[in-house]
């Protein structure tokens, strides 16, 4: 069913019926009148987008003419009255290292009107452009070919951890993996405004890198708080012990993040499982590094932590750092749980507990809420960081009627998994629920694909305490180390890749669910909750949800929810984007959103008659993009494209300066797929907004040189975006 803008206004509290949550209320644009010149309270002229949108104000016949051709650009495309400036790119100096690879979340902490700190996440390396450009960007060569040759002789993988220290192959692997891990983690840079009001770098002693190997050869270990310390320091472990106790080497996979009201930044360790083992034993200890060996091919590199013997249970946490403290290299708050962290938003209300909303970015990942044991006195007090050390982690259980409840991940929580019959599947998958292995002497999960088998599992384990049968002072830590599987066992709803959370001024939470498509090894989401605009399951294009706590209390145990936006083509009930990711709220309380379409699907042609719901169909949306979604005012419930990224890239980490004159944005992995390539012509099957089919001739410059020109290789970079008049974004 396609819903009207009236539904959106109701869900957002802007019209009649606002108090009632209907989970199927997508604020789609079918009933929106033409905008004409697309202004009103809109303060920019939307850019040209590759497919027709309801907000174009064109008739179907006009759409067929206007969109008959489209030229994709290897450029950060902005409205004509805006420009961008590169603030820093891969290889630029930062402290005693350099600007890492694949910049993601940006945490802006302004100290006064003219100075600020910017924390930058460096998520992972895209192996093709990384290996092509490393020597040019960093000025060092890498032993890639010798490691490739050695790995090929062993089937493409090597347990380098088991090799002797003086083994030449191990020495080369260490050099390669050190480079890959140093290019991940976090960076802090200091900024100042120049005479024109533009933000520029102003390096000082606070500029520093926290890398994937901090602490290995220096004194910059990361520290930890919370229940998992008892796991790290347990002298008798079922599994692997790195011998470091509570000390932790480095941070990597740093994807999303959040900035606290008191000026620290949270950095989320997401896809750590590609570099160290994810599975743990019942006592929370890690499996042997051999379970995640080095793997290398001409197209990829994984298992970078293997050669250094990194313990997998020390990754997958939320890391806090104070950018202003030059000696702060990060603390991992284990009370917030270990999983593939993405979204994080902090709600600090005086005289209430602190709440942290986070997500696990996997299809079947959960939405979590941490509630502190103590309460907030002043939201801006830096002492609030202590509230991360003790509290309760909950997982969200969504009901199809628009209500929900929070399930505590504690020893006395009842084992009551979701049934496989409730999981969304496609033609290549079946409904699977992954639960902690019933043989508690084995690490990891067991895949269960029948409701009967789940019922049998429940006869063996009544509570989470039965699944983690260790000393009571370590039991909570073991549950949090294994949070994803513990949440599965407790019946927390498997969701559709929750990639960001943002707190609205009214205290409600927006959640970006990127994709409901199932995947091998992770399973799928709840088919009753994550349905497309026309009820389709599975649905890949994604949603934005609004969640309201009962009584507006962040420690409430129940909530209401509703979808406020759905991805997909307008002719099929979507708003015209696909795969929403990072969200940002501007100074007027309106929403900005970037997309996270898989690089391999950008501009890919598909056969519309064969399957319009396939993963390939996202090719119609072109490159990843940045959107403006007004939440109030004349244009509330509509959507406008503001930027399109360069080839193969993802736009990440949008954040506004306090005066709303500058948008900071990270451009991640340009040229990721195949590096330098040629231009091609694609005949793309489009539809008008009312569903009439037509063809578009699309020119696609597959290579990327961004942000440089000529034959220069592409580099990830952070940019500032401003209006040419240097006025705020909302100026007309």
TrEMBL record:
PROSITE patterns found in the cross-reference section: TAT (PS51318)
Pfam families for this protein: PhoX
Protein's UniProt keywords contain Chloroplast: no
Signal peptide: none
Keywords: Membrane, Plasmid
Signal among keywords: no
Name of the protein described by the UniProt record: Slr8030 protein
Residue runs in coiled coils: none
Domain of life per record: Bacteria
């Amino acid at each position: 069913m396609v819903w009207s803008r009236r539904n959106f206004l109701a869900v957002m509290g802007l019209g009649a019926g606002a108090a009632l949550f209907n989970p199927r209320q997508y604020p789609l644009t079918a009933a929106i009148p033409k905008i004409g010149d697309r202004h009103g309270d809109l303060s920019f002229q939307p850019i040209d987008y590759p497919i027709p949108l309801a907000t174009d104000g064109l008739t179907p016949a006009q759409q067929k003419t206007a969109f008959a051709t489209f030229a994709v650009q290897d450029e950060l495309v902005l409205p004509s009255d805006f420009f961008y400036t590169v603030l820093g790119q891969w290889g630029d100096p930062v402290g005693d290292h350099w600007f890492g690879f694949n910049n993601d979340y940006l945490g802006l902490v302004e100290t006064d009107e003219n100075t600020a700190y910017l924390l930058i996440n460096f998520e992972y390396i895209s192996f093709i452009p990384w290996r092509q450009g490393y020597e040019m960007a960093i000025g060092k060569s890498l032993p890639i070919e010798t490691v490739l040759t050695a790995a090929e002789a062993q089937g493409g993988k090597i347990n380098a951890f088991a090799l002797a220290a003086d083994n030449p192959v191990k020495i080369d692997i260490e050099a390669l993996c050190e480079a890959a891990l140093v290019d991940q983690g976090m960076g802090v840079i200091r900024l100042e405004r120049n005479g024109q009001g533009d933000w520029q770098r102003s390096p000082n002693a606070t500029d520093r890198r926290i890398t994937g190997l901090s602490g290995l050869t220096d004194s910059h270990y990361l520290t930890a708080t919370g229940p998992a310390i008892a796991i790290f320091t347990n002298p008798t472990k079922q599994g692997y012990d790195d011998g470091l106790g509570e000390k932790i080497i480095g941070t990597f996979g740093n994807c999303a993040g959040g900035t606290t009201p008191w000026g620290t930044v949270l950095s989320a360790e997401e896809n750590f499982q590609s570099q160290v083992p994810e599975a743990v034993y019942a006592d929370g200890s890690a499996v042997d590094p051999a379970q995640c060996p080095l793997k290398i091919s001409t197209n990829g590199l994984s298992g970078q932590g293997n050669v250094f013997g990194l313990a997998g249970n020390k990754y997958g946490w939320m890391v806090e750092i104070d950018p202003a403290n030059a000696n702060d290299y990060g603390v991992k708050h284990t009370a917030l749980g270990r999983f593939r962290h993405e979204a994080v938003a902090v709600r600090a209300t005086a005289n209430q507990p602190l709440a942290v909303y986070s997500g696990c970015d996997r299809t079947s990942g959960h939405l979590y809420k941490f509630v502190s044991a103590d309460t907030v006195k002043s939201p801006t007090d830096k002492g609030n960081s202590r509230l991360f050390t003790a509290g309760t982690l909950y997982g969200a259980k969504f009901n199809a009627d628009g209500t929900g409840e929070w399930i505590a991940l504690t020893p006395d929580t009842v084992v009551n998994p979701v049934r496989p019959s409730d999981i969304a599947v496609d033609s290549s998958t079946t409904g699977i629920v992954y639960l902690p292995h019933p043989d508690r002497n084995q690490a990891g999960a067991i895949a269960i694909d029948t409701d009967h088998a789940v019922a049998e599992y429940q006869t063996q384990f009544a509570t989470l305490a039965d699944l983690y049968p260790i000393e009571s002072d370590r039991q909570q830590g073991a549950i949090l180390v294994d949070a994803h599987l513990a949440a599965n066992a407790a019946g927390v709803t498997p969701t559709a890749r929750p990639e960001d959370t943002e707190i609205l001024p009214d205290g409600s939470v927006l959640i970006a669910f990127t994709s409901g498509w199932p995947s091998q090894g992770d399973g799928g989401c709840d088919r009753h909750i994550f349905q497309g605009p026309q009820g389709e399951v599975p649905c890949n294009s994604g949603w934005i949800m609004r969640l309201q706590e009962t009584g507006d209390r962040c420690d409430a145990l129940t909530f209401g929810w509703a979808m406020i936006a759905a991805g997909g083509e307008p002719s099929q009930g979507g708003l015209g984007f696909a795969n929403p990711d990072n969200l940002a709220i501007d100074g007027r309380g309106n929403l900005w959103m970037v997309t996270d379409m898989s690089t391999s699907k950008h501009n890919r042609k598909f056969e519309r008659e064969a399957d319009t719901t396939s993963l390939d169909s996202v090719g119609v949306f072109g490159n990843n993009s940045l959107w403006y979604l007004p939440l109030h005012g004349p244009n509330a419930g509509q959507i406008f494209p503001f930027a399109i990224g360069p080839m193969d890239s993802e736009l990440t980490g949008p954040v506004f300066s306090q005066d709303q004159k500058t948008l900071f944005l990270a451009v991640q992995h340009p040229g990721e797929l195949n590096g330098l390539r040629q231009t091609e012509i694609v005949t793309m099957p489009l539809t008008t907004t009312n569903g009439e089919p037509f063809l578009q001739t699309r020119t696609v410059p597959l290579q990327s040189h961004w942000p440089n020109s000529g034959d220069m290789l592409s580099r990830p970079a952070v940019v500032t975006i401003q209006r040419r008049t240097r006025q705020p974004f909302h100026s007309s």
